[in-house]
């Protein structure tokens, strides 16, 4: 595991700095909208929800069952005053507008830019690569709300679900991802049909453009988005490029053009062998028609064949609006393949490494499902930033090998040892596990 660069970023991207200087002030800025004499403050409810995901508490019931040390640490580390009951917490957060909470992602992104960490995510020609994909985070046949999408099964039953379209900054070779923005896919007001990824992506791009108007970005997407409306929308922004996967079954016209050029020896190919015994062959063609219906939409196509040491062959094919040349195809292939980090380092981590992504702690009748998912993603942001550039966090993760073990150790100390900050808690863990800080 590669470590953080060095230490100036360590303090700026420590838990205590991120939480006290960014997360808490942001939570405080959100409009409560309730009567001034409400029993519990929205700020405390948001802090409590954040603490649940930060500590990876498996249920609201366990969060309510606290030792004296936990009570102390929730006050000192998370600055929580009074915590509502389980139902009170759900009811309070159910009425919060998710759009207001979503602004927290842009708030953290601006801190990343100011800290200098963003430079570590630069890829080809100082672009950043943002992988976009959809993920489901709630599903039930018994529980529903007016914003649920519905999936009808052959047996006549109906599943109610919530999903979102996520935009995650990735880089080949970097384990840490930055969960840049997330567009909810819910039942839209006045609509009869389910919301879908192809509709949501236009809302996501509009929000991305509004919050990061001049960020040089390569959007990395799968074949679902290899259509004229998406390609043209990305092309409208002078700072944006795309790498979109394509498949021969869905894009026959495109592949036919490539094959015809290849048969005429007009497709340049590069071939090489890696130290691991992999054989690479990359061909490319510029100025192809996206499809027969949209012949005016010109795209460039990258075609890569990779054969591993055992002879297994894998093909990767992408379209892009970047001019392809012998100098950039290998690097762009790596950027395109990094798309999978949204699955492996983001969704799988949230589902399987303590965040309980699909459990979500509540559904509500207004916005709770999306609000809880957003708070979870804010906690994930903080964890990823610590892992990327905080010396103590990285040293502990290196020693304990897995995030799950680190979360278990953190909760164990949190339950029994009063501390004044997360940094002090990390010091306790460093002593307990004899971690050497270099």
Give the helices and strands, then pairings.
Elements: H1 8-12, H2 15-29, H3 42-55, H4 60-64, H5 68-76, H6 86-94, H7 98-115, E1 128-140, E2 149-152, E3 158-170, E4 178-185, H8 197-211, E5 217-221, H9 228-235, E6 240-245, H10 252-263, E7 269-273, E8 279-289, E9 298-307, E10 313-320, H11 329-337, H12 341-352, H13 368-389, H14 391-400, H15 403-416, H16 422-432
Parallel strand pairs: 1-5, 5-6
Antiparallel strand pairs: 1-3, 2-3, 3-4, 6-10, 7-8, 8-9, 9-10
Helix pairs in contact: 2-7, 2-13, 3-13, 6-13, 7-13, 13-14, 14-16, 15-16
Shape: globular
Which structural category do the helix and sheet elements fall into?
A: alpha+beta
Helix percent band: 40-55%
**Quick one: biggest sheet?**
10 strands, mixed
Rg from alpha-carbon coordinates: 24 Å
What's the total number of strands?
Answer: 10
Q: Treating each run of at least 4 consecutive H or I residues as one helix, how many helices? A: 16
List keywords for this structure.
438 residues; ten-stranded mixed β-sheet; alpha+beta; 16 helices; 10 strands; globular
Describe it for me?
The chain is of the alpha+beta class. Among the domains are: 1-95 and 390-438, no CATH class; 243-326, no CATH class. It is 43% helix and 19% strand. It is built from 16 helices and ten strands. Strands 1, 2, 3, 4, 5, 6, 7, 8, 9 and 10 form a ten-stranded mixed sheet that branches. A hairpin with a 5-residue loop joins strand 2 and strand 3 (158-170). Helix 2 runs antiparallel to helix 13 (368-389). The radius of gyration is 24 Å and the shape is globular.
């Amino acid at each position: 595991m590669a470590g953080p660069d060095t230490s100036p970023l360590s303090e700026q991207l420590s838990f205590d700095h991120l939480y006290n200087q960014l997360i808490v002030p942001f939570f405080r800025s959100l409009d409560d909208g309730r009567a001034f004499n409400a029993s519990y403050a929205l700020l405390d409810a948001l802090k409590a929800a954040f603490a649940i995901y930060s500590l990876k508490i498996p249920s609201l019931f366990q969060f309510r069952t606290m030792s004296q040390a936990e009570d102390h640490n929730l006050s000192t580390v998370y600055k929580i005053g009074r915590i509502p009951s389980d139902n009170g917490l759900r009811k309070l957060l159910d009425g919060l507008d998710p759009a207001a909470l979503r602004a927290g992602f842009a708030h953290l992104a601006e801190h990343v830019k100011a800290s200098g960490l963003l430079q570590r995510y630069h890829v080809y020609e100082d672009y950043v690569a943002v992988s976009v994909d959809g993920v489901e985070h709630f599903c039930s046949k018994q529980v529903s709300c007016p914003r649920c999408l519905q999936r009808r099964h052959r047996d006549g039953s109906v599943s109610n679900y919530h999903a979102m379209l996520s935009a995650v900054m990735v880089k080949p070779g970097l384990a840490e991802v930055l969960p840049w923005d997330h567009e909810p896919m819910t039942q839209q007001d006045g609509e009869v049909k389910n919301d879908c990824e192809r509709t949501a992506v236009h809302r996501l791009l509009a929000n991305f453009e509004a919050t990061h108007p001049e960020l040089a970005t390569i959007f990395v997407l799968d074949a679902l988005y290899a259509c004229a409306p998406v390609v043209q929308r990305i092309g409208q922004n002078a700072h944006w490029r795309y790498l979109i996967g394509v498949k021969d079954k869905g894009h026959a016209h495109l592949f036919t053009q490539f094959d015809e050029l290849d048969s005429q020896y007009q497709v340049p190919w590069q071939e090489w062998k890696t130290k691991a015994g992999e054989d690479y062959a990359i061909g490319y063609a510029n100025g192809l028609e996206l499809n027969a219906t949209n012949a005016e939409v010109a795209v460039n196509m990258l075609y890569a064949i990779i054969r591993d040491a055992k002879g297994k062959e894998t093909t990767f094919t992408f379209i892009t609006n970047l001019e392809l040349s012998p100098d950039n195809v290998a690097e762009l292939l790596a950027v395109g393949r990094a798309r999978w980090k949204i699955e492996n380092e983001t969704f799988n981590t949230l589902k399987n490494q303590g965040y309980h992504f699909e459990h979500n702690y509540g559904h509500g009748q207004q916005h709770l499902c999306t609000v809880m998912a957003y708070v979870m993603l804010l906690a994930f942001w903080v964890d990823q930033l610590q892992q990327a550039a905080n010396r103590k966090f990285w040293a502990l993760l290196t020693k304990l090998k897995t995030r799950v073990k680190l979360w278990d150790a953190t909760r164990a100390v949190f339950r029994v040892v009063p501390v004044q900050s997360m940094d002090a808690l990390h010091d306790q863990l460093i002593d307990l596990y004899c971690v050497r800080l270099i």
